[in-house]
Each structure stands twice: as C-alpha cells, then as structure tokens.
C-alpha cells in the first residue's frame, strides 16, 4: 500500500505532526489486482485522521463517524472542490456541490421534481424494459463482460430516457461517458467532456425552442418549469445541472453494479438465497452498498480549524472514502461479513454521502440495482465468475471494475 515510498520533510507541511504522516495514493493504491477491500480495511491500523503526502498532500479520515461528520459539517468543509487533487472547473458549476445558500436554489428541484419516488414512478418500467433488452442480447451466449455489456450502457440508457431522448440519441452518449470516466489520459477526458456537453447543449436548445416536445421524460419539463429565485432557469444553469446529473448518476451506479454482481457471482449461497426469496433483494442491495463502498470524494477545509485534535489549514483537502467507512471495524465489528438475513432491517452506510449534499439520485440507483438482481438472477442460471476474471480495479472518484467476466448455463 505504498509504505515503502520515500517521504522527505519537504513533503510534509510544518503544522502536520510526523506521527500522522503515512503515504496513501488512493488512485494508485486502490487500483490493484489484489483485494481492494483489504487495502481499505488496512486503514483500521492508521490514526483516525492522517496526512498523506501523495497527490499534492491531503488528509484521510479512517473512521465512519468522522467521515460522516465531514460530510455533514459544511460550515467547516466545503464541497466546492470534491476532487483530490483539485481539478480545474469545466466552466459549469455543479449546483449540488455548491455551498449554502447557493446550494438550496436547485436542490429542491433535484430532490422534489426529478428524483423523488413520485417523480421516478414511471421510470421503473423503462428501467426494467432496458434491463431485459440488454440481457436478451447476451443470455444465449452463456458468458459476457458484464461491465462492458451491461453495467456501463444500462444506467446511461435509463438516465437519458429521463431526459426524453429516443434510443438512438441516448446511445450516442455511451462511448463518450465511458471515455470520460475511464480514460487516464487528460486530453481524452477533456475531449469526452466537451462531447457530452455538446450533446447536452444541442438537446437543451431543442427543448427551449419547442417546450411542447419535452414530454417523454420528466427532467426537461422540470428544468423548463424551474423558478430559482422566482425567475426561469438560465441555459447556463440548465447545463450545469445536466452535467451534474451525468457526473453523479452514471459512473457511480455502473461501479456499484459491478461490485455487487461480482460478489453474487462468486458466492453461490448468497446468489441462491436471493433466487429462493426475491423479497430479500432490497435489503441485500443495502448490505452490499455498505460492504462495497467505492466512492472517494473530497472536501476542502474552509478556514484553519482544529478537528478531532488535528490542526487543518484552509484550502487543504480531506478524503472521505466510503470504502474505508464501510470497513471501519469500530463501527462494524464484523465488517467483512455479508449477510442478507434482515435482522432489524436497517443498514447504516454512507454510499450516498450524508448531510445537505447527500446524493439526490439515491432512489434511482437503488431502483436500478434492485431491478438488475430481480431480472438477471432468474435468467442467468448457475451464475458464476469466469476463470479469466481477475477482479482488477481502477480507482479515482470511484473504485471500479473495468472488466467483469461472468458465466452461466444458457437455456
């Protein structure tokens, strides 16, 4: 995990105690062909908060309650920069990561008119239809790369249907979304970002020119009807919100799908329990969201502050990793265990963050994960991992599986 990397005093700010310094590059160290969860679990042996000199230097919280506190205490930790190291803005502010009071202007639109259970009531049928159609495409083969053939296209297809886009237009996003989230070459990511923005720009222009055409999905009507500060939303604000949705709703769901499907395919007893009793599936989704946390998001220290006995300076970054939170052995004494029996029916986790910036798309993500298991498990008989599956992960904002090779007995 990088313990042998050489650290010089030049790498350590003067206010950081030497006994709190440990090398940890979450982008490199979580990208492994070994057990990525063992690396997250090893953070139990680190201080509650430590300083990593990697990636320009940043703080790492290792205890779930502290991570939750960083999420919640927006007066201490700003969300205006969530990437480590900080990345230059695309020029389109992400309204859900704005700090108060700007944050509230669009949050109600996201929570109440785009992603509430009521707003998404009509989306489940489309999500189930898309899921069945994609599975139809590979079911007879008895094998697939689940990451490439299902987990990447399905969330894009469903999500763009919420914009009212037809199937052909939706699919135009898939290669660009994949390049944006998967490429390690900055120029390729910028190219993909610009292509996505161009597609969104064209679609928004069409809806503004003819609002009556925005009837098939519910996102564009909500944007056109939005009245932040009592006025219509500007096109810049619409673009900002749409780009936020692309950033937040696609790669995260894709990554979580691969982790959950890999676990199910590799654990026949858990697989069969869900086949025998599909009513367990919603709870199983929550259990796996806790166990396979895969979000690495940052918060920026607003002002100099002493936090849990650690002196932090304004502008420094704090890593909040849900992979680390979900395997905190002081919060979860049997953190590695995965049990689908309901117990008290509640699973505390931070897969969608916490506080005012909690993910507005949580209900949609849960729906898609549930539908995946409900539709795939009965059809992919004797589901299992293929011999060539490695479990190799890549890490950035998400810890993702770029490939997931699975097999089953074709009908």
Automatic annotation (TrEMBL):
<dbReference type="InterPro" id="IPR017972">
    <property type="entry name" value="Cyt_P450_CS"/>
</dbReference>
<keyword id="KW-0503">Monooxygenase</keyword>
<dbReference type="InterPro" id="IPR036396">
    <property type="entry name" value="Cyt_P450_sf"/>
</dbReference>
<comment type="similarity">
    <text>Belongs to the cytochrome P450 family.</text>
</comment>
<dbReference type="GO" id="GO:0004497">
    <property type="term" value="F:monooxygenase activity"/>
</dbReference>
<protein>
    <submittedName>
        <fullName>Cytochrome P450</fullName>
    </submittedName>
</protein>
<dbReference type="GO" id="GO:0005506">
    <property type="term" value="F:iron ion binding"/>
</dbReference>
<dbReference type="GO" id="GO:0020037">
    <property type="term" value="F:heme binding"/>
</dbReference>
<keyword id="KW-0349">Heme</keyword>
<dbReference type="GO" id="GO:0016705">
    <property type="term" value="F:oxidoreductase activity, acting on paired donors, with incorporation or reduction of molecular oxygen"/>
</dbReference>
<keyword id="KW-0479">Metal-binding</keyword>
<keyword id="KW-0560">Oxidoreductase</keyword>
<dbReference type="InterPro" id="IPR002397">
    <property type="entry name" value="Cyt_P450_B"/>
</dbReference>
<keyword id="KW-0408">Iron</keyword>
<dbReference type="InterPro" id="IPR001128">
    <property type="entry name" value="Cyt_P450"/>
</dbReference>
<dbReference type="Pfam" id="PF00067">
    <property type="entry name" value="p450"/>
</dbReference>
């Amino acid at each position: 995990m990088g313990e042998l990397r050489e650290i010089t005093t030049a790498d350590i700010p003067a206010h950081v105690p030497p006994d709190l310094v440990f090398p940890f590059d979450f982008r490199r160290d979580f990208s492994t062909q070994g057990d990525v969860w063992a690396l997250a679990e090893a953070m139990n042996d680190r201080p509650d908060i430590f300083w990593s000199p990697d990636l320009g230097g940043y703080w790492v919280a290792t205890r779930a309650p502290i991570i939750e506190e960083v999420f919640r205490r927006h007066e201490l930790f700003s969300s205006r920069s969530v990437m480590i190291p900080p990345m230059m803005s695309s020029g389109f502010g992400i309204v859900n990561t704005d700090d108060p009071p700007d944050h509230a202007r669009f949050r109600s639109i996201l929570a109440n008119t785009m992603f509430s259970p009521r707003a998404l009531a009509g989306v489940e049928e489309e999500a189930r239809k898309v899921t069945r159609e994609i599975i139809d495409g590979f079911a007879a083969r008895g094998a697939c790369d689940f990451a490439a053939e299902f987990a990447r296209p399905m969330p894009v297809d469903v999500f763009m249907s919420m914009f009212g886009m037809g199937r052909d237009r939706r699919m135009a996003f898939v290669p660009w979304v994949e390049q944006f989230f998967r490429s390690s070459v900055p120029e390729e990511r910028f190219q993909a970002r610009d292509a996505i923005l161009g597609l969104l720009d064209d679609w928004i222009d069409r809806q503004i020119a003819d609002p009556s055409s925005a009837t098939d999905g519910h996102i564009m009507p909500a944007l056109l009807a939005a009245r932040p500060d009592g006025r219509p939303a500007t096109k810049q604000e619409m673009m900002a919100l749409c780009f936020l949705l692309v950033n937040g709703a696609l790669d995260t769901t894709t990554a979580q799908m691969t982790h959950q499907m890999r676990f199910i395919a590799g654990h026949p007893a858990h697989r069969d329990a869900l086949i025998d009793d599909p009513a367990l599936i919603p709870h199983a989704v929550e259990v796996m969201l806790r166990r396979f946390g895969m979000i690495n998001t940052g918060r920026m220290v607003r002002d100099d502050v002493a936090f849990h006995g650690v002196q932090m300076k304004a502008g420094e970054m704090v890593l909040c990793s849900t992979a680390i939170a979900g395997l905190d052995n002081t919060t979860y004494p049997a953190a590695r265990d995965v049990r689908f029996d309901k117990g008290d029916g509640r699973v505390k986790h931070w897969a969608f963050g916490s506080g005012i910036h909690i993910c507005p798309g949580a209900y949609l993500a849960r729906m898609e994960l549930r539908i995946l298991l409900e539709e795939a498990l009965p059809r992919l008989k004797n589901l299992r991992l293929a011999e060539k599956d490695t479990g190799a992960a890549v890490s950035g904002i998400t810890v993702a599986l770029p490939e997931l090779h699975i097999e089953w007995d074709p009908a």
